[in-house]
Amino acid sequence: MYCQNCGNKLNDGADVCLNCGKQLKKSQGQNFNVQNIPYEYKPISMWGYFGYELLFMIPIVGWILLIVFALGGSSNVNVKNFARSYFCILIIIIVLIILIGGLGVAASI
């Protein structure tokens, strides 16, 4: 749950926001919508994920942007986490290709 006044993350059952001191309504968690979420926690839409996926697939430029986003090029936590997970998958694929290539070379000798 987040404070509707300042956007600070709140503990469950909190009556007062520790950041701004605003008294919280008991129904605040039920009426909370995406517009009240601070930018750094806004969810990525389906088209956003698709767009980032296409961007990261571009050789060299996409990979550079992938590293930039993974290391903090965006203040949005969801974009950072998506880039980090994509980067991990890319590393796993590269390692598997090297292992399979090495096994193929060893088998042909």
Give the SSE map.
Blueprint: H1 46-57, H2 61-70, H3 77-108
Helix pairs in contact: 1-2, 2-3
The strand count comes to 0
Q: What radius of gyration results from the CA coordinates? A: 21 Å
- How many domain units? 2
Summarize the main sheet: none
Helix content: 40-55%
The N- to C-terminal Cα distance equals 61 Å
Label the overall shape. elongated
The SSE order reads HHH
Approximate strand percentage: under 5%
Low-confidence stretches: none
Individual helix count: 3
Walk me through what this model shows.
The protein has about 110 residues and is mostly helical. It folds into 2 domains: about 35 residues, no CATH class; about 70 residues. It is built from 3 helices and no strands. The termini are far apart. The mean pLDDT is about 85.
Short summary of the structure?
The protein has three helices and no strands. By secondary structure, it is mainly alpha-helical. It folds into two domains: 1-37, no CATH class; 41-108.
Key traits:
109 residues; mainly alpha; 50% helix; 0% strand
